[in-house]
Amino acid sequence: MKISFCLLFALLVPLAQAQQPAPDVLVKSITEEVVAILKKDQDIQAGDPKKVADLIDTKVVPHFNFIRMTRLAMARNWRLASPEQQKELAGEFKTLLVRTYSTALSNYRDQQIDYKPLRAKPEDTEVTVKSDVKQSGSSQPVSIDYEMEKTPNGWKVYDVKVGGVSLVTTYRDTFASEVKERGVDGLIKSLAAKNRQPERQKAGKT
Amino acid sequence: MAKAKRLCAALLLAGTLAGCATSGGNPADPLEPLNRAMFVFNDAVDDAVMKPIAKGYRAVLPGMVRTGVSNFFSNIEDVWISVNDVLQGKFQQGLEDFTRVIFNSTFGIAGVFDFASELGLPKRNEDFGQTLGSWGVGSGAYLVLPILGPSTIRDGLAFLVDTQVDPVWRIDNVPARNTAVGIRFVSRRAELLDATSVLDEAALDRYRFVRDAWLQRRRNLVYDGDPPREREEQDDDEPTK
Q: Which of A8-12, B21-25, B146-150 has the lowest mean pLDDT?
């Protein structure tokens, strides 16, 4: 009896250690960490774009699957791109999304985030983590939903929906038209050009 | 009323045009050339007038006051929201949203405070366009309205109904009405300031980005935040295994 208990324990411990944090726990802990830094850091509050970008790079980016995001935005045109082009596309798209996210974070004021209970079965490999963000000066909360997939390296975000609007699929039509008019290389060039534009003065700061 | 009729006629005309206009792009946007022109016009008006006013509004008034203004108009809107709940067959939700009005109008001092949300009755988003959508009316062509911005044929027509029953538009005293409508517009624009700055950063083609985001947003609202997955999402994004 005792031995079997010990055996069971010995088997369970490594299992528990191998377990990745649950998707909702992951989203919540990252958000809380980033928000805490945002609130503390004077440079970020003064609107230092470099610092915000660094913060996102170290804390947020590792939890996103940019290849899948790019593939989703490209839809059927993804197959038209060579492996090289796919890599370039994903790189440029990542830069664009990170910059967009930086802008959103620089606008951050006092917001209250409520997480809704996760509706998922333990064996699910794709889940949606839902949250509501209540902003000061506004009567309507905005929903932010994270579409996540289970990978060997933990849960990764592959889409973010703000008020039901997907950050990824909203690009679909734009990407498709670019590819149709100017080819995959044309799209890569447009993305690169957009990314080279100086970051706009934050509207929220004026 | 005459204005409503004119807008109605314009919408119908746009709908007819939608039937015959040729365009290269998105099937949801047969009026693209027209819409793009209106989009440019709206952007110019926004940059010159709306945005500066909204920024001033935000700079001058503290967050608490702005929330109060926003809540006040939001409370008036809740009456029509609960009617739309019922029209969509969501009786429980209709009751909840009407309870919101009662609570917020009294304890919330004419709606300035949103107590109902604290009590677990969250603010909802409904309008007549969503009601039509829930009845199975398709959205029709994408349509950019003057000043008001993104809409569709269905939502544009439904907006006329929304306006007809809107208590703010029905205030008898014209200067008072215009002031109320104006303040509400500025309050809403101010709420969107951050969103528009993010939009400028995100979009490769602002027109397309706004259009596609808007259409997704409306679809999401019609399905109350839980739209069925679109076929394309499953077809094309998965690599062949």
A: B21-25
Minimum Cα–Cα distance from B124: chain A residue: A140
Closest CA in chain A for residue B228 = A164
In this prediction the pTM is 0.81
In whole angstroms, what is the distance from residue B212 CA to residue B150 CA? 10
Place of tokens 């808007």: B214
Cross-chain Cβ contact A139/B67 below 8 Å: yes
Residues B73/B166, Cβ–Cβ less than 8 Å: no
As a dihedral over the C-alpha atoms of residue B10, residue B16, residue B19, residue B22, rounded to 10 degrees, the angle is: -60
Q: How far apart are CA B46 and CA A188, in angstroms?
A: 31
Give the mean pLDDT of B115-137: 93
Give the pLDDT score at B238.
47
- Whether B240 shows a pLDDT value over 50: the answer reads no
CA B158 – CA B164 distance, rounded (Å): 10
Indicate the range of A54-58, A171-175, B77-81, B86-90 predicted with least confidence: A54-58
The model's pLDDT over B181-213, given as tens digits with 9 standing for 90+, comes to 999 999 999 988 888 888 888 899 999 999 999
Q: How confident is the model at residue A57 (pLDDT cuts 50, 70, 90)?
A: confident
- Write down the residue that tokens 């209106």 correspond to: B38
Count CB pairs under 8 A between chains A and B: 125
User: Strand pairing partners for A114?
Assistant: A132
Alpha carbons B29 and B141: distance in angstroms, whole number: 6
Rounded to 5°, angle at Cα B129 from B6 and B40: 60
Asked if B64 and B71 touch (Cβ cutoff 8 Å), the reply is no
* b/e sequence B63-96, b meaning 16+ C-beta within 10 Å: eeebbbbbbbbbbbbbbbbbbbbebbebeebbeb
| Chain B contact for A64 (CB, 8 A cutoff) | no
A128 touches chain B (CB under 8 A): no
CA distance A186 to A116: 41
Runs of H (alpha helix) within chain B: 2-20, 32-45, 51-60, 63-87, 91-106, 115-118, 128-134, 153-165, 174-191, 193-202, 206-222, 231-236
- Residue burial B146-180, b: 16+ Cβ < 10 Å; e: rest: eeeebbbbbbbbbbebbbeebeeeeeeeeeeeeeb
* Closest approach of B137 to chain A, Cα-based (Å): 20
A125 touches chain B (CB under 8 A): no
In the block, tokens 């040729």 appear at B22
